[in-house]
Design a protein that fits this description.
With about 290 residues, the chain is α+β, with helices and mostly antiparallel strands. The chain has helices spanning about 1-10, 20-30, 35-40, 45-55, 65-70, 75-85, 90-100, 105-120, 125-130, 135-140, 150-165, 205-215, 225-245; strands at about 170, 175-180, 185-190, 195-200, 250-255, 255-260, 260-275, 280-285. Strands 1, 2, 3, 4, 5, 6, 7 and 8 form an eight-stranded antiparallel β-sheet that branches. Helix 2 packs across helix 7 (about 90-100) and helix 12 crosses helix 13.
C-alpha cells in the first residue's frame, strides 16, 4: 500500500518515473530489508552510524546487528525488534529504491516528510500508513461526512489486497448526490438501512479486478469481467453483512446487477477510488436507499 502511496508522490515530484515505480514494486517482492536501513528509518541509528557499521562489515566477519551492539549504537533488544521488521512493506520499498539507485535514504526521508506535510498527516497517521493497517488508513482518505462508510470500504480494500493485489491502496474519496459510473457492477443489501454498493471502472481497474478474481486475463470490460467483479462484490457484501449481524443489524444480499455507463443520483453517495497497480477502480456505496 505504502509502495504506491509514496511511489506515486515520488513520481509526481519528479524523483522517479512510472516505469521505475513499477519496476521497484516488482523487485520489492524479493527484497529482504537491510537492518541498517530499518534502524535509520526507525530513528535508532543515524545515517553516519549505519555507514560506519557497513564499512566495518567489509573487514569483519560479523553481522550488522552484532557490530552495532559492540559499538554501543544498539542494544540486543533493539536488534531483535529490528529483525522482526524486515518484512515491513515501507522498508522493503525503501530498500528497493536505494538498491536500484533510484533515490537515496536521505531523499526518501525528506520526501516522506514532504508527503506528510502536504497531506496534513500527523506522525501517528503517517505511521499507520507505513504499517499498512487498513482500518487506520481508510479514514484518512474518506471525505468529511462519510465516516459511516469506514467499515465497508475497509472490507472492500482488504478483500482486494488479499485476492487481487497486496499493494492496492485508497485514494481520496468524494461524497455527493450524483455520480458518473462507468460499466458499474452493483448490489443491494436490504435491511433497516438499504445499502447499495458497487464497483465502476476508473482507469482500467475493472478489468484488473475481474482478471485477479477469476484468475483469467481480461483486456476489455465485457460480461465475463462484470460477472467476476460481481462475484467479488458478493464476497465483500457477505463479509460486511456478517459483521453487521454481529451488531444486531440484519442485511439480505440481492443478486449483483451489471450495467452500462450511467449518471446516478441519490443521497450521500461515496465514490472511493482504489489504486491497483497502474489502474484505478471506483468503489461506490450509499446506505440511503441506494441510487437511481
Amino acid at each position: 500500500m505504502i509502495s504506491y502511496l509514496l511511489g506515486n508522490y515520488l513520481v509526481e515530484e519528479g524523483f522517479m518515473t512510472k516505469e521505475q515505480l513499477e519496476h521497484a514494486v516488482s523487485v520489492q517482492e524479493q527484497i529482504r530489508v537491510k537492518l541498517g536501513l530499518i534502524a535509520v528509518s526507525e530513528g535508532m541509528l543515524t545515517i553516519d552510524q549505519a555507514d560506519t557499521i557497513n564499512r566495518l562489515q567489509q573487514t569483519m566477519d560479523k553481522r550488522f546487528g552484532d557490530i552495532a551492539v559492540e559499538k554501543g549504537y544498539l542494544t540486543e533488544a533493539q536488534v531483535g525488534s529490528l529483525l522482526k521488521m524486515q518484512g515491513n512493506e515501507f522498508l522493503t520499498f525503501a530498500q528497493t529504491l536505494v538498491d536500484e539507485g533510484i533515490v537515496t535514504m536521505d531523499k526518501i526521508q525528506l520526501v516522506l516528510r514532504s508527503y506528510q506535510v502536504e497531506n496534513g498527516f500527523t506522525n501517528t497517521e503517517l505511521e499507520a500508513i507505513k504499517s499498512g493497517e487498513i482500518e487506520k488508513i481508510v479514514p484518512l482518505f474518506l471525505p468529511k461526512g462519510a465516516e459511516e462508510y469506514e467499515d465497508i470500504v475497509a472490507v472492500a480494500l482488504k478483500m482486494i489486497v488479499r485476492c487481487i493485489d497486496r499493494h492496492a491502496y485508497p485514494m481520496y474519496g468524494t461524497l455527493g448526490d450524483k455520480a458518473d459510473l462507468v460499466k458499474p457492477v452493483s448490489q443491494t443489501l436490504e435491511g433497516a438501512e438499504n445499502w447499495r454498493v458497487g464497483f465502476a471502472d476508473g482507469e482500467g481497474g475493472l478489468c484488473r479486478l475481474g482478471s485477479g478474481f477469476a484468475k483469467e486475463e481480461f483486456t476489455v470490460v465485457d460480461e465475463d469481467v462484470q460477472d467476476a467483479v460481481g462475484e467479488l462484490l458478493n464476497c465483500i457484501s457477505g463479509v460486511f453483512a456478517t459483521a453487521q449481524s454481529n451488531k444486531g443489524v440484519t442485511l439480505e444480499l440481492m443478486p449483483p446487477e451489471m450495467g452500462d455507463d450511467a449518471s446516478v443520483s441519490g443521497k450521500d453517495i461515496l465514490v472511493m477510488p482504489l489504486g491497483i497497480g497502474n489502474t484505478t477502480v471506483n468503489f461506490v456505496v450509499t446506505n440511503k436507499n441506494g441510487w437511481r
